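Chapter summary example.
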Amino acid sequence: LLNGTTYKHHLEKYGPQDKFGYKDFIPMFKAEKFNADEWAEVFRKSGAKYVIPVAEHHDGFAMYDTRLSEWNAVKMGPKRDIIGELATATRKHGMVFGLSSHRIEHWWFMNGGKKIPSDVQDPKYAGLYGPAMEEKDTLTAEFMNDWLLRCTELVDKYQPQVFWFDWWIEQKAMEPYRKTFAAYYYNRGEEWKRGVVINYKNESYPESVAVYDIERGSSKATKKYPWQTDTSIGKRSWGYIDGEENKTPNSLIDDLIDIVSKNGNLLLNIGPKADGTIPQEQIDVLLEMGKWLDINGEGIYGTRPWKIAGEGPTENPDGGFGESKRSDYSAKDFRFTAKGNAVYMFCMDIPTDKKILVKALALTGDPAKPIKSITLMGSQEPVKWKQKADVLEITTPKTMPCGHAIGFRIEF
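The structure predicted for these 412 residues follows.
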């Protein structure tokens, strides 16, 4: 800690942590240019169907109007109900509103401040910094009850249809509180007559009662129950940092296709600035993804896994935190989804060969059967194809409808 670059940077720029601590950044967080409608419009244009802002992160600062802490964005910093404004704007633009709580991780998140001279040790700021325990310390009933109260307050005040949790709610002591929250939330959904769902990591909930979430990774196999990947456009951070390296639209589109083919959803993070604006480079990524979905969304939205997820030579890591080892997909990699009487096949890169060859759609063997028609989504050009005993052969279109993966609608 004492030799870390972040620690040294803080000393050089802001001074000792007992004179200038985390609380002193709050007045610098003004979000004076934040416009929830502008955010929601960008998300809508990106093709997003649901929006999940962070209501409270590990730091313990609530981004909403809460009765349970003075340390919140309504009373400090922006002096606005950020979550409330996003809830209204999200629904206005026709998307599903959810939110996330990382409150349980606050149990230990500020404990570094006990190892150096810092204002974490000042009782005046216990409402923000406390309890600053160690991860190995058993959670107290008081803290877990506070967690439950904060979560149910969020449910009642904002009526989210998705409630996202990070990994640490899996602690054994949390089991009765997890159950109590799930029962409360799902019963409230019944009262609202709207579908609601919890997102969780690891083994916090049974897979049949909530949606499993994989952080910065994916699944090699199709899962029985719907699941989700959460990742960020930024490769280095979830928040805003100078000099961020952002992922390309092409890589994110490929990840989206791969995830959806295996019964998953993609929850994609942006890192806004302290003034409340989204970096233009990240907006550009979102809008490019939206243009692709305008053409190919038919094969993404409302689809279900086909008999197989795909074929091709490229293999990527299974599970969380594997995306740094990810390989780019090629034009010989294919992914499949299904809806109604159609199967959608995505060629994961722009093909350069004269023929696209797909073994999974050969005339003989499982799962293929005789094809009636093939169309290229976003194109009026007739598709030339021949279904042989061992392979489906598609003549590569002369003109591509987009600069990323191309999608074919196949009817049997």
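To summarize the output: The chain is about 25% helix and 20% strand.
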